Amino acid sequence: MPWLDRLDSNNSQGEYYLTDVIAMAVADGVPVHGVKAADWKEVMGINDRKHAEAERALQQRRVDELMEQGVSFADKYRTVIGDGVFIGSGVELVAPVEVGAGATIGAGSTITKAAPGEELTLAQARQVTIEGWKRPVEKPV
Description:
Blueprint: H1 3-6, H2 20-27, H3 51-68, E1 72-73, E2 79-81, E3 86-87, E4 92-93, E5 97-99, E6 104-105, E7 110-111, E8 120-121
Parallel strand pairs: 1-4, 2-5, 3-6, 4-7, 6-8
């Protein structure tokens, strides 16, 4: 039952339709059942007109997952996260920034520039002690 191998683009649009797999399964006597998607974006069709919308939905899902893991975003709508990235705890991404596919971001980093794919990126400020510094004292009102 290699239905994907049997897909073709012999139609008026010259496109492959994944829904043809369902017809093939039914024709082969395999029971088919519907399942309601939790989010319509998981099953949206993708073509040239919808590609940007689908990409944005995928990026938003990745950002939301990272936020649940403790990653902070200065502007989550202008951040692009590649496939297969690992971002350590306590990281802050300051947009606009792109994290390339397979990149690793070290824990505690503040990222303000692109992090290349398949590379380790670290960005932590050097600790500085300023001798003789005094905190300003507020004058009583």
